[in-house]
Give the backbone structure.
Amino acid sequence: MASTFEQHDGPGTDPFSLPDAQQARARRVHASLFRIAERHAATEEQRKRQTHPTVLGPHEAVRLVSFLMSGAARPAEGEPEVDHADITAALSLLPLVRGELDELEAGLLRMARGRGMTWPEVAFGLGLGTPQAARQRYERLAGRVRAEGETGED
């Protein structure tokens, strides 16, 4: 008779091994986007609330759930109320949204500097008090973006 350990179907199904965190997060992100799209962006009328009318992006999914919860967006007729699973799905997408925004900001700052903007000008644009604060912000962002790229995490 085979032991419980020998009966597992493959990596990640062994009850004595930790799941692969990156794979679990990727599955949860996909499931989160699918859940919110299916429940709150299934019809043409519902999709009109988003930037891109055919594809629900992570930032739009988070925004949509937030707007529906706050009353800033009205549910369409027959649309289910936002429930705890929808909220959990939106929360699961936040690290991905934050990572995308970090990449966008770091890229914009690199391009601004590449086009000759000074750190005082960048600080003004970001609403920061000093050029040093702007440079430190860029360095933190660039470090986070590099770290995420190296580990493959979103």
Observations:
- The CA atoms of residues 78 and 95 lie 30 Å apart.
- The chain has six helices and no strands.
- The mean pLDDT is 84.
- The radius of gyration is 21 Å.
